[in-house]
Amino acid sequence: MNHSLRVVRSGAWVLAACVLVACSRPEPPQEPVRSVKVMTVGSQLPEFRTEYAGEVRARNEVRLGFRVGGKLVARPAEVGQRVKAGQVLAQLDAADYQLASQAAQAQVQAATTQRDLAAADFKRYTELRAQNFISSAELERRETTLKAAQASLDQAKAQGGVQSNQKGYAVLVAERAGVVLAVEAEPGQVVSAGAPVVRVAEDGPRDVVIAVPEHKAAGLRAGLPASVRLWASDATHSAVVREVAASADAVTRTFAVKLALQGEQAAAAALGSTAYVQLQSLPAGSLASAQQQASAAPGLIKVPTGALWQQGQGSAVWLFDATSGSVKAQPVVVATADGNQAVIASGLKGGEQVVVAGVHVLTDGQKVNLFKEKNVPAQVSGADQLAAKTENQPAVVAPAPAKGQP
């Protein structure tokens, strides 16, 4: 009886323990340890020389146009053609100007006749006044008439000269030798006075034109030395900054800088060819001192843009602590972007490890592991794969032939 009671009590205790275990809450699963990629940031000294892509142009590019308007009847000039001084580039219909010139010449002849008649009258009245046949007032009137006729003749001659010049303006000629870069009017088109018809690059010195951003253009001035590397010949030439634009371009917001190529070979560079320019944003004398100051000052720190995440109203990165194996949020101030990298103004220093992958699934103080690339297995040839398959496959036993079969 006592033994049965003990068994019942033991069963009750076991049952109670099972009930308590079943009613207790299960322990929450532990958060998995995530793997992250990190990089060690370092400071970089700012560069004092930057290479710009530019274009070789003639120092003097002239857009030639007619000084009078009219219908374009001929344009011998073509793109790429070499022209000489005085060569005809285009011609207008000069029929109207020819008629105007003839009319002006007729007016000159009429004014000459009137002047000659007034001169003859004045001479005759002068002789009559010497004999006291006329009064002095009459002689003065004849003299005034002669002066008016002379003035009319001078006016007619001037007008005739203008009409003659306009007839000559109907022919467009090259003022200097050069190369035709573009034509902007075709025969049959009516052009106005001053409208560009032909653009000519005159022979002579060559310039390289580059576009410089605003923060770089502030330190440039005329006379700064530079080196120019031509893409076609891969030759390097010396150059000097000749002109810096006073205002930025309305579209690109950059400043046009013209550099004068030095040397005879550089002056013969092909127009429109690509050139790479390295120039100094500081005078040569102060470049060494500026580099010394930069070496003493903190350098630039860059991190990939994927390492940044939003924290409140600013940006932050995750710093990896190798001692504890955890990450910590670090607010940073981004100065600017350089391609796929962000330039950090403050918040980081050289030598710190920053998480660059998996930043959006981390929490402050979370344990992490450093991501390691898996070892890529060596490539196996086809013969080895076939051999391995043959070894792993079970042997196939052919069934015994039936009676009567070979």
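The above is record 1. Record 2 follows with the same two-line structure.
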Amino acid sequence: MKKASQNNSPNKPNKEKSKIFVWTLFDFANTSYSIVIVTFLFAVYFKDTICSGKSVGDLYWSFGVSISMIITALISPILGAIADHSAGKKRFLLFFTLLCIISCAALYFTGEGTILLALILFVLANIGFEAGLVFYDSYLPELTSPKNYGRVSGYGFAMGYAGALITLAIAFPFIQVGMIKITFPISALFFFVFAIPLFVVLGDTRKSISISEPYFKVGFKRVVYTFTHLKQYKNLSWFLLAFFFYIEGVNTVIFFSGNYAKSTLNFTFQELALFFVIVQTTAILGATGFGIMADAIGQKRTIIISLLIWIGTMILAYATSNKDYVLIKYFSDLIHSELADAQRYSFYIVGLLAGSVMGATQSTSRSLMSKLTPPDKKTEFFGFYSFFGKSSAIIGPLVFGYVSFLTDSQPTAILSISLFFVIGLTILMKVKDPKIVNIN
């Protein structure tokens, strides 16, 4: 026994670190899709080229986002329950990863006027990306102990933003010469290559249970049971409700920041690339720093700090987008620049602030969810986590798209999003710190 202990103990931390690295590498891979398709290049290309720059493009884009999120929200809890029961987590993750990659690459064939084709491919790609996260996120409790959830989750998001930076660096030469469409299959290839290690190294920890009923029926029954008994987990219920509202704001900013900078502030693609480099860089620092902070002062307090920064960022974005506001006039005088230039420069500051909490809010929420979730229902409950996150992303983009279309003012639309952060923050106050009390 002593000999076995001597042989195995030193290797255990290294093995754990290796698995954590492989897990974070998937974040490194899939953020290439997020930055190129969701946040930056395709999002702008969709309105600017496919919709010919018309304001209705915001509304069409919001439809695509919301439809993909509705479908993902509906299937995520059932998929999570099935994966828990059949030990099929990795298989489901592989299926949705390939769905995302193939659909993402096919966006190369879109162009001016191909609105329906573009929306169909985007919806399929986004379902693949978002549904896959249900299974990816549920690996976290298996990789490390609860006291390290915050930093490990933060490492994942930091790796993701590092992947986004490298993807932007690869895409930049094509952006400079206007070859935007080629970046879509490049993003897909990047995702494919760096996702491979997870499927080689990590496995399912549970054995499949032999059952007589179809898996979807079993999955649906488990979801209904979990939902009806969710009141037994009051702390978890309050958190999911708070998460529903504040992640609404985060998702909307992610989906519309590129369009906002291009349409309202007249950013060029090169300026947008620089803007998102700033966002991704601060996001790496924010995800890592806030992850360490979460383990030190608690996930709840860390999320509260991030939401306060979000609210301030939304107000700043609105105030610096309106030429009649004293703030932007003062900033213009301070840097001795024209108002239009001052607006663009100020948005870099907005990006810096948003980036610092973008990954932090998501990673800390993931680690808090890991602490609140019963170990034997981790994938199923992460399915509900995904359900609340994805269903919230239905409303925010629609609100932004509708307000933008109705008022023909994106600054007004982005100010309306701050309300979601305020509501989420208010509800989060009811959540008890899991470091202090029992989760039930």
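The mean pLDDT is 81.
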